[in-house]
Description:
Helix content is 44%, strand content 18%. By secondary structure, the protein is of the alpha+beta class. The longest helix is centred in the C-terminal third of the chain and has 51 residues, at 432-482.
Amino acid sequence: xxxxxxxxxxxxxxxxxxxxxxxxxxxxxxxxxxxxxxxxxxxxxxxxxxxxxxxxxxxxxxxxxxxxxxxxxxxxxxxxxxxxxxxxxxxxxxxxxxxxxxxxxxxxxxxxxxxxxxxxxxxxxxxxxxxxxxxxxxxxxxxxxxxxxxxxxxxxxxxxxxxxxxxxxxxxxxxxxxxxxxxxxxxxxxxxxxxxxxxxxxxxxxxxxxxxxxxxxxxxxxxxxxxxxxxxxxxxxxxxxxxxxxxxxxxxxxxxxxxxxxxxxxxxxxxxxxxxxxxxxxxxxxxxxxxxxxxxxxxxxxxxxxxxxxxxxxxxxxxxxxxxxxxxxxxxxxxxxxxxxxxxxxxxxxxxxxxxxxxxxxxxxxxxxxxxxxxxxxxxxxxxxxxxxxxxxxxxxxxxxxxxxxxxxxxxxxxxxxxxxxxxxxxxxxxxxxxxxxxxxxxxxxxxxxxxxxxxxxxxxxxxxxxxxxxxxxxxxxxxxxxxxxxxxxxxxxxxxxxxxxxxxxxxxxxxxxxxxxxxxxxxxxxxxxxxxxxxxxxxxxxxxxxxxxxxxxxxxxx
Length: 559
């Protein structure tokens, strides 16, 4: 009675070549079975599947389950070459052990290996381990070559950073992009504008972001500003492995890209866009402003207008502070809260000299009274309810997202095809090392491009989320405004601050009280409101004595 066997074939989509196709493998294995007088009772084939691990090969897994169940009582599994069974040593040995635990042996027809013989099993173990070790050695050598390139100050592959272009593999300044890079560093280092403010400044002043590679975004977002400020390439340096492909903990043969906090930096041969001194100043400010400070006064208090009330001299944000009064014996007495200017250095290099400290309770009350004046207007409620029913349109951004995701899928598909080609390389080929090294370099380049595409998608998604959240936030703020008189006084300080920040864009004040005691000069809202039959985006005051006479409407422009 003939012994029974399964035959297993696998090929990558990109490797359907003569002698390696599924049909060619099957024909060879059927002839081999006939020669060895084996009865083929099952055939399993994974087309276009990587041999990196068994998780991506459904037919292979189905074969193992059939063997474990004793379905056909087979004695052998036939494969064309050991590389068709698997290229990961751990998977090869684990799968081979499963076969032998169920009385099944592996035969590699082309390699002449049979695990039913002691030497055959040993050779399989050695070959699988040596092949994987060789691949790892080549990968390490490839990375060492890239590191040496970085040491020499040369660009290491991937897209050129914004502000540069690649010419024969070398970084050269892109004249149509470099101005934006200089503006970003100048605004961040020499003014009080933060990352969000810089993005807004560029978008508001006609600096359209150039669409590059798969990027369809022509505006600036804070994450882009951060990447520019943190990249030492702009001061003439080359950083190595700012992002690394790392194994996911607890996962077998699964990897992801991780940004590194510590990485080597070398002097580049390319021209710097900003000086090293400017770049270091930017890093110092990034560390200083990149985290929130702990509050030193009572936790329930919030500086309600911080971030939206402006200095009348330098137009920077006034900050909230506390003056803690104590009795003669040193015990706590009372906290006095105020808004003041930090006397920051302005764009022209002159430090602001505005030294007035405003009592927070006084200013807060003036703003609250103004809002009450607006919301108590007769047609306010009807107009707001109509505004709430509007819907946000993200169709244009959704179309951009579809294009970006399509481009990402194409990159991933190309990367996978390259990985499949690497799977099918013959370790006995005399050109194996060179082929694998070339493919590894191309694979690293794909990872760089995929990383860049994923960042673009994240930026676009953040934009979409912002628009939707802004709509939801506006709706909530509108609803709060409808019941302002009933709700506001019941809010905690934190809720009041959130509400005001969602509603008010900017508050301007006079340097000192006007003769009639007025403090507020102008309030600008984040979205249009209705006042005395008009749609307005702000309120401003002159020197009249009453609000009714003093209000001047800033009407929204009709597009």
